[in-house]
Amino acid sequence: NASDAVTNADHPFQDLESLIPETELTTAYAQGDFEISDSMEAYAEILLNRRETTAKGYRQFWSYLYNEDFFAGSSLSEGWTGAQWLSPTPITDHSGSKITVDYRRFLAGLSGEVGDWYWDLTYQNSHSKGKYRNKVIFDDAISPYNFATGSCVGEVTPVRGVNCIDVPWLDPQFLAGNISGEVRDFLFGEEEGNTVYKQQTVEFSITGDLFELPSGMMAGAFGASLQKDSIVDTPGAVTLASNAWGSSSAGITQGKSDTKAVYGEINVPLLNDMPFVQSLDLTASARYTDVSAYGSDTTYKVGINWLIGNGVRFRASRGTSFRSPALYELYLNNQTSFASQRSIDPCINWGTGVAAGTTSDIVAANCAADGIPADYAGGAITATVYSGGGAGQLQAETSVAKTAGLVWIPEFEGHDFSMSVDYFDITIDGEVTLLTAGQIVGNCYNSENFATEPLCDQFDRNATDLRVETVRGGYLNIADQRNRGIDIAAAYSTDTEYGTLRVRYEHTVQLEAARQLFPTSDPIDRTGEFGQPENVGNLTVELQKDDWTFNWLARYVGSVDNYERYGQGTFRNSTTIRGERVRLKLDSDKVIYHTLSATRDFEDLGLTATLGVANVFDKEPPKVSSVGGVSREGNSAFYSQYDWLGRRVFANLSYQF
């Protein structure tokens, strides 16, 4: 019946929700070149692309009504009595979006030679227009009539100016999502917004030999570029009018930027033909970048390439990078959205959470220090979340990347083999990010430096009922992010009676994946947790004979667990719920996904056809508990490393002319 549909967690509308949005991609590409003379060539490229993405969903929405005899009472609540008010919460399938992005890129260039120097001049023009059509609930059909005492018939809504009708909030059929046509038209609608992004680039580069050194020829490359970017994002009419219930309101975002850059690189042969030094080369490069919307900076990279002998090579590098905030990050017009108290406030019933093992000791202590009672039930009114661009406040992201490694390419007659081991250490300073309301409030109360935690200044509580009243989000710079690890790669190929066999394996050992939000907070290393496995790898085996190619790909994801995160630094794999000790599932064993495919080349026809099976053994994502910071969809861990589609057959057909 209808009441069962409201309380059933598996409402039919949920089965219609898109886990992975449906996407259609159409691409056309053409290129050509023309020889002007023996030393000059003209070339051009054209790329046209359309992407259509459709997502279906469901949502709940609610109002506030007086009981028939509570406070002022309401004639629309006949039969509902008692010292309380109501918040009916129906469900609807009126949710989802369709996004269409049309992208075009045109490139034209001239290249040529002057003596021993090669030069290249290019002009690129790209234009991207995205249209996003969203299903919305009209706010002026709900909010103005919260706690109304009677019928609204005869009134007009304050934003759209349409005739008001009484919404049957207490009808079980309405609550279950069976909404009549007249009410549906009053509550629901659609809007379309668009984003236009334009970019033009002119770049000139020249490369060649500089002069002879005792160990060889010193070479160089130099260039300059000018880039113009602009963005105009116009939300739909409902969003512009702040009339989308439960959704962000926003204005038009627009901005532009000019980027100028000059760069140079040299390759210097230092030594050769010496004991243990077959060759030793130094490369050094520098780039000066000036961004009108932000500022300027200089970056560099220095590397050495040392061929020791017998196929053994040592390589190392150190480099810096600089990324000014993107136009959207700088100029995003102020947005207003609304978040439920339970989705953002970890202090709600924190005493019960401690007893059940779902609230950590540090959160409980900080909630208590903030004057929040252990039985605080949370506010009834949603929190207002403000966010916008960071022009004038955002700093550029900067990074330092260091690498060092060995390469071995021995000479085996009839066999090709190579192997490399590289250490990498990448630190990003001032990463630009957009924190959600839940992250802001949650990280405040999860901080070991609660009294001085900067995130705690980003939201306000109501002095009377203690609910989170406003949250100030927006783009900001976080303090630090560091990734360290080891990349291992090996490749082998040989000719056999069955064809040419090629085997390649790539493996990454992650040593550190730490993030620090602010200088006053401690870095948090998530290595070995869900989303940051210590070990990942890819094995590819290819057999090619005549027009046929057979491939086997094995993708390896190492074991992970979140027990220490749940235990705030100590291993904790159980909790107490209603007086009983319950074992938690916050880990996953290693997972290997297999893909098989066969490709046939029809050279005479210009066709290439591929048929294959992905996730051959139909492995499901690991099942996990709903605590410990694990992202879930249903009961399964929801991370990019895991396959969500199951076993599937795929086919590709390409035509070249």
- Number of E-state strands: 37
- Residue share in helices? under 10%
Let me know the average pLDDT.
92
Main β-sheet, in a few words? Answer: 20 strands, antiparallel
Overall structural class, as computed from helix and strand content, comes to mainly beta
- State the shape: globular
Query: What is the CA-based Rg, rounded?
Result: 31 Å
Q: How many helices? A: 11
Percent of sequence in beta strands:
over 45%
The N- to C-terminal Cα distance equals 61 Å
Low-confidence stretches: 1-8
Tell me what you see in this structure:
This protein is mainly beta. It has a 20-stranded antiparallel β-sheet that branches. Strands 11-16-17-22-21 form a five-stranded mixed β-sheet. Strands 3-6 form a two-stranded antiparallel sheet. Strand 7 and strand 8 form a beta hairpin. The longest helix is centred in the middle third of the chain and has 9 residues, at 361-369. It is globular.
In terms of topology, how is this protein built?
Layout: H1 2-7, H2 12-15, E1 22-37, E2 40-56, E3 59-60, E4 65-66, E5 85-86, E6 91-92, E7 96-114, E8 117-137, H3 172-175, H4 181-187, E9 188-213, E10 216-234, H5 237-240, E11 249-250, E12 253-274, E13 277-291, E14 295-309, E15 312-323, H6 327-331, E16 335-339, H7 341-344, H8 350-356, H9 361-369, E17 383-387, E18 397-408, E19 415-429, E20 432-434, H10 437-445, E21 459-461, E22 468-472, E23 475-477, E24 480-496, E25 499-516, E26 524-525, E27 535-545, E28 548-557, E29 560-561, H11 563-566, E30 574-577, E31 580-583, E32 587-588, E33 591-602, E34 607-614, E35 632-633, E36 636-637, E37 648-655
Parallel strand pairs: 17-22
Antiparallel strand pairs: 1-2, 2-7, 3-6, 4-5, 7-8, 8-9, 9-10, 10-12, 11-16, 12-13, 13-14, 14-15, 15-18, 16-17, 18-19, 19-24, 20-23, 21-22, 24-25, 25-26, 25-27, 27-28, 28-33, 29-32, 30-31, 33-34, 34-37, 35-36
